[in-house]
Amino acid sequence: MAKPGTELLPSALPVQLVDEHGDRAPRSRAQGYGMPPAEALLAAHRALVIGRRFDRQATSLVKQGRLAVYPSSHGQEASQVGAVLAVRGTDWVFPTYRESVALVTRGIDPVEVLTLLRGDWHCGYDPRAHRTAPQCTPLATQSLHAVGAAYAARARGLDEVALAFLGDGATSEGDFHEAMNFAAVFQAPVVFFVQNNGYAISVPLARQSAAPSLAHKAVGYGVPGVSVDGNDVAAVLAVVGKAVERARSGGGPTLVEAHTYRIEAHTNADDATRYRPDGEVAAWLERDPLDRITAYLRAAGLLTSVEEIDAEAEAVAADLRARLSGEPAVAPEDLFAHVYAAPTPQLREQAARLLAELGEEDR
Fold it and tell me: Residues 118, 130, 275, 276: which is the catalytic one?
């Protein structure tokens, strides 16, 4: 008889459906997960192409001074695209600061996605309209929000699941522990999706955790942990899709660890050469998520031409350049908007004082 809790343990090797060369992975690596349907793979491929081009354009905009900062998603696109495509439009998504490609895939206007990183508004997009929380800079705080939203949805009888994006560094935070524990005890319909890219800024994983894997951390909470190849968009679609289905049917939370890598530095303010060797980056470039799914789809006869998708991606980049080329029209009073649903007396007083000072400067 198996020991209690062993059914919660992740596999020794991450779930993989398409290998590094674009070939179908051995059945042993699939671990019971089926290949997503062709239309889902083609949608993911399109999102990866557009996401990669968006990411390159955003990186260029930082260098041109059009953005204050940009955390690149290069290398992690399959994790972001696969996870966000696995949830419904009626579900809630709770992103970190690095999930820009996920938000574009979610259907949010790319300019609105980058508005926060431009530094000229609170969020940039309407969280309620897109059922997507603001991108979160503090580590792991959004995991508590995700659990709260999921718990509330279930209490209200709503058919909604929350997807919480996290980085490996976030699993070292107390908020992560509290979120996992509450979700497990109260069986909240939430999926914790950890993108393990090897570094919390410059701190390697070995200095963060002694656990066999981050997915193993789930067992202590009575939650199943699943390890997936985060550069295999097909596997991410399948694994997160099953975790979402489990949550929606009342099975409770799941912790998914996606093994991936950020090719670029942490942000434009970081010098990654100080803490990781060039050879490590080169090795991960050989596992490129876009090249992998493109090769698989072509071999399967599902993708004959990419010209139309490339043209669409270029149009997205051109529109982004054009709309971010001008200076933003900033209204100082917006500083006080959307802090609370109804402004407090203190906020009203502060806003009045600011407007009075601005009025004096004009005279």
Answer: 275
Prediction pTM value = 0.94
Q: What is the pLDDT of residues 58-76, one digit of tens each?
A: 999 999 999 999 999 999 9
Does the active-site annotation cover 348?
no
266 catalytically annotated: yes
Catalytic: 21? no
Which helix (H) or strand (E) element contains residue 164? strand 162-167
What per-residue confidence (pLDDT) applies to 362? 57
Say which of 46, 52, 262, 287 is annotated catalytic: 262
3-state secondary structure of 92: strand
pLDDT tens, position by position, 178-212: 999 999 999 999 999 999 999 999 999 999 999 99
Q: Which of 266, 287, 292, 296 is catalytic?
A: 266
